[in-house]
Amino acid sequence: MNFIATKKTGHGADKPVSRLLRLAKNPKRLWPVLVRWYFLHVRSRAIRLFESENIDSAQSFAFFVGYPRSGHSLIGAILDAHPDCVCSHELNAIDYLRRGVSGRQVLSMVLARSEWFSKIDNIWTGYSYSIPGLSQGVYDKPVVLMDKMGGATTKLFRLNESLVVRVGSTLGKDVRALHVIRNPFDNISTRAMGGALNKNAVDTEQLQKSIDDHFDDIETNWKIIESDDLSVMTIRYERFLEDPVRELRRICGFLSLYPDSNYLKDSTAGVYESSSKSRSRVHWPRELRSQVELRSRKYEFLNGYTFD
C-alpha cells in the first residue's frame, strides 16, 4: 500500500479547509488524509472514553531527540513491536503538549497513531517498517508509551527551553528520552542535499549552513543531557546496525522493558549491517571537514567520528 504523506505547517497540523477542498478533487489523495484524521481525533477519543486502562497502565513516556535521518524510524518501529510498548510514528507529541493539549489526550493519540501506522502497513517515505508476527499497532495495557519524532523535537526544545520540564508534569508519567546519533558528516550531507531521497547538488554555502544547523541541534541535545532534567540514553546508530540484539537489549533495559529472546531475534531480523554514507555524495572541502571535526570535540558523544 502506498501512503501519500500530507504536507504540514510549522506546528505539525494540516492546513485547513482549502487543503481539503484541493484533495477532494483527487479521492486517492483524500482518503489517506481522512483515515489519518479519523485515528487522530475519533479513535483517540474512543480510547479515552472506553479504553482508558491502556493509558493508565503506562508507567513512563519516552521520546526521541536527535537529528534528521539518524535511524529513529527503524528503532521506533522495533520498539512498537514490543508487546509492552507502543511507539507512535511522527505524531509530534511534544508539540501537542507545547500547544496546550492535555496529557491524557496526547497519550491516547499515541495509541491511535500506532494503530494508524499499522493500518497503512508501516510504510513511510517509500520504506517499510513492518515487522511481521509482532505487536505493531496492537496493545493491551502497555507499560511504555512513546513517540518517534527526533529532529523536530530537538528544535522544539531549542525554542522552548522550559518545555523539557513541562513534559513530565503535564503527562504525569516518568519521562525518558532516546538520543540517536550517527556520523555527523552523514547527517550534515543529507541535510544539505534536502533529504535522503534527494540528490541535489550542494555548494559550499549550503554545506556551511547545514553544518551550523546541525551543531545547533547538537548543542541543544547536549544541554538537555547535561541538565539532569531528563533521563537520556545515547544510541550510536552504527553500533545498533552492527549488533542490533545487543543494542536493543540495552534500550529495553533503559525503558524498563523485558526483551525475551523471540522478540530480540524477530524484531531485528531485517536490520542491515551497514548504513548509507551520505557524505560520499557531497563534495567536502578540506576546511569544512576540519571545521566539523574541531566543533565535534566539544561533545563527548561524538568521540571517534571522522570523515574517513
Write the layout of secondary structure elements.
Layout: H1 17-24, H2 27-50, H3 53-56, E1 60-65, H4 72-80, E2 85-89, H5 93-98, H6 103-119, E3 123-124, E4 127-128, E5 144-148, H7 150-159, H8 163-171, E6 174-181, H9 184-193, H10 204-227, E7 231-236, H11 237-242, H12 244-254, H13 261-267, H14 286-296
Parallel strand pairs: 1-5, 1-6, 2-5, 6-7
Antiparallel strand pairs: 3-4
Helix pairs in contact: 2-6, 7-10, 9-10, 10-14
Number of strands: 7
Overall shape: globular
Structural class: alpha/beta
The secondary-structure element order is HHHEHEHHEEEHHEHHEHHHH
Distance between the termini: 39 Å
Biggest pleated sheet: 5 strands, parallel
Q: Give the helix proportion (percent range).
A: 40-55%
Please, what is the average pLDDT? Answer: 90
Give start-end ranges of low-pLDDT stretches. 1-14
Rg over CA atoms, rounded to whole Å, is 19 Å
Total count of helical runs of at least 4 residues: 14
Strand content: 5-15%
Widest beta sheet: strand line-up: 2-5-1-6-7
Care to describe what's here?
Helix 9 (184-193) packs across helix 10. The chain has 14 helices and seven strands. The chain is an alpha/beta fold. A five-stranded parallel beta sheet has the order 2-5-1-6-7, sandwiched between helices. A two-stranded antiparallel sheet has the order 3-4.
